[in-house]
Design goal:
The complex is a heterodimer of chains A (210) and B (269). Chain A has 210 residues and is α+β, with helices and mostly antiparallel strands. Helix content of chain A is 12%, strand content 29%. Chain A is globular and about 45 Å long. The termini of chain A are close together. In chain B, the strands form three sheets. Chain B has a six-stranded antiparallel β-sheet. In chain B, a hairpin with a 2-residue loop joins β4 and β5. Chain B is globular and about 60 Å long. Classes of the chains: A alpha+beta (210), B alpha+beta (269). At the A-B interface, α1 and α2 of A face α1, α2, α3 and α5 of B.
């Protein structure tokens, strides 16, 4: 199925490179995130729309699943143990939730102090969350769609070249009303974006995931 | 803004150099684990000693120049832990940055735990096991119901109770590190519990690099196959230690650690 075939579309938008986005998904709606040009990491946070103190939890999600990567069928679990959403389609096959988002501060530690003054996902998240009355305090360990971070049995943890091709997509179907927040990752210091951030596209439809 | 091919090539080269240093050079320089009878604490360095029973938690204010020894007295316990900067609780433990910056989800003697602000919360200056978890987190009401059929005392509720007593709430509970929890994973990404990595008397020393509030929860790790009998008392010893000198093993473990220490030192300059 290509992107023009999907029915029941209620919203679509191109998110430019390096920019944030947010929207409330109603229960049963499906958000398709399309990696338009390939190899583009998409950082994402979810909050319960009725009470954002309940939010996505990476550790609860991984514990419930028993494995380390986000993939087709993964249930995204909140800090109160509830299913917020699930992955209902995936043409990429590899997504991360252990590496967090880039920040000016962590970039300076990882890549040297000169990178402190580069745009970063946490800057995006802070500004986008401020529209919803939320702050840095509300930023938790996030999802990284299309980001390839293998963890080997010895614990070796590496951001490597993304495997998503142009047009690859992932569908996230909401199990409750959720505020879905995206940072289209600006990182240029590691391979998560092929060292060259590009636009993505989001499509919301009423039909549940296939 | 599209990057030029020269910029991309230069950034890729720097990344590969950092990766090689972080995954090949740094691990070779890390120290051996502390011996079970090593690193005794002199009696006059002890500030406070606390015994935490199974299922319970304690809150410790730990200042720069102090360390917290966590002791798994029976070899059956795990200790889940979070921490905040005492002066600004919005700065807090960040497990994702900790593994990403150190190129490893495995921490052991010589490693650091980072805050979300690119600073060092604490350093692992002593560690007998190197068997700790940064990925899966502690027990929750849901995980205890799944295991025991009923909600038992659990780490998530302990963190909420401890946080509430210092004016914090569920928004302030970040992902945690769990000590004495030998979590690994197989080639397909399934989590595993490594047997034979826990002994009675295992300990770690966490040296505070800034002024901290720490909550430690003594609950079985949700992947420990020995739960619910996986429980016993643990001992926490707050003690005075020298601050990190220029050639400190944690500070010099990697270029990333050196930068994180330098940024932390600026808070106290």
């Amino acid at each position: 199925m290509n992107n023009t075939d999907i029915s029941d579309v209620v919203y679509s938008c191109d998110i430019p490179a390096e920019r944030p986005w947010s929207r409330v998904l109603r229960k049963g709606q499906t958000l398709r995130i399309i990696d338009s040009e390939g190899q583009q990491a998409v950082d994402a946070l979810l909050y319960c729309a009725d009470g954002p103190a309940e939010r996505y939890s990476s550790q609860d999600t991984l514990r419930a699943q028993g494995s380390a990567y986000i993939e087709l069928g993964t249930r995204l679990i909140s800090n109160k143990g509830r299913v917020m959403a699930r992955i209902t389609a995936d043409t990429c096959g590899r997504h991360d939730t252990s590496a967090g988002c880039c920040s000016c501060e962590s970039n300076a530690v990882r890549f040297g102090e000169a990178t402190k003054y580069q745009h970063a996902c946490r800057e995006n998240f802070i500004l986008e969350l401020s529209k919803h009355g939320l702050t840095k305090r509300d930023i938790v360990s996030n999802l990284n769609f299309f980001m390839n971070v293998p963890i080997d049995p010895s614990g070796k943890f590496t951001v490597v070249d993304g495997i998503s091709a142009p047009g690859n997509y992932v569908d996230v179907t909401a199990d409750m009303d959720v505020l879905f927040v995206i940072s289209n990752c600006p990182q240029v210091n590691n391979p998560c974006n092929g060292f060259n951030p590009t636009p993505i596209r989001v499509v919301v439809r009423d039909a549940p995931g296939l | 803004m599209t990057r030029t091919s020269q910029e991309i090539a230069a950034n890729r080269q720097r990344y590969e150099e950092l990766r090689a240093a972080g995954q090949e050079l740094t691990p070779k320089g890390l120290p051996e684990p502390t011996a079970l009878d090593g690193a005794p604490i002199l009696p006059d360095a002890v500030i406070h000693r606390e015994h935490v029973p199974p299922g319970w938690y304690t809150t410790v204010r730990l200042h720069r120049g102090e360390a917290l020894r966590l002791v798994d007295d029976t070899g059956r316990s795990s200790i889940s832990l979070i921490g905040w900067c005492e002066e600004d609780a919005s700065e807090r433990i960040n497990c994702a940055d900790t593994v990403k910056v150190q190129w490893s989800a495995a921490i052991s003697k010589g490693r650091i735990i980072l805050s979300d602000m690119g600073r060092v919360l604490f350093s692992l200056i002593e560690d007998t096991s190197g068997a700790h978890d940064l990925l899966v987190g502690g027990s929750t009401p849901g995980s205890s119901r799944a295991t025991f059929g009923a909600t038992t005392r659990n780490t998530q509720d302990n963190f909420l109770a401890a946080g509430s007593k210092i004016g914090l709430d569920i928004r302030d509970i970040p992902p945690c590190v769990t000590f004495f929890a030998p979590v690994s994973l197989d080639d397909s990404g399934r989590f595993l519990w490594r047997e034979g990595c826990k002994q009675p008397g295992d300990f770690v020393d966490l040296r505070a690099e800034m002024n901290l509030i720490i909550v430690a929860s003594n609950c079985p790790h949700p992947l420990d196959p020995a739960r619910p009998v996986a429980s016993g008392p643990v001992t926490l010893i707050r003690h005075r230690v020298p601050q990190a000198v220029p050639d400190d093993l944690c500070r010099t473990a990697s270029p990333e650690a050196a930068r994180a220490f330098a940024f932390t030192d600026r808070l106290f300059a």
